[in-house]
Amino acid sequence: MNFTRMLRHLFTGHVAIKRVFSETALTAIGKAIENSEISHEGEIRFAVEAALNTPSLLRDQSGRERAVEVFSQLRVWDTEHNNGVLIYLLLADRNVEIIADRGINVRVKAEEWERICREMETAFAQGQFETGVIAGIDAIGRHLQEHFPTTTGGGENELPDRPIILKG
């Protein structure tokens, strides 16, 4: 168990999310997802969580493990072409994870998802949260556009575009 990590999580609350993601920023992120989805048949979700709960911390749950749980809880996997993508931010760790459904994951290498995550984390380290998320959405959108281009000006919106703030 990492004591420093535990303290960071215990002292990172929902106020921290409001500090870095204003209502205006959340609206802009939702709009970026909506605009991206016009050019492809994929679905993008953005979820941010301030910190892990105590049981998760005690079992040393990683950001990646939590992101997989959130992917399932938000039903990002439940798209017609199996091309949903979750961007998950664990704010206490400043950790970004991208979880992609099997339809897109077989076409984009894990290293590419990892590169996008690290670029977002670099922006976050500079205090550019909104910019970092939108850049990540754009990068993911380019992959979805390449592999799942729209034939009708954007298909049915299968998942909400609005960012979700998770209650840990």
TrEMBL record:
* Pfam families to which the protein is assigned, alphabetical: TPM_phosphatase (PF04536)
Q: Which residues form a coiled coil?
A: none
- Region described as Disordered: 148-168
Describe the location of the TPM domain by residue ranges: 19-142
In its UniProt entry, what is this protein called?
A: TLP18.3, Psb32 and MOLO-1 founding protein of phosphatase
- Source organism per entry reads Nitrosovibrio tenuis
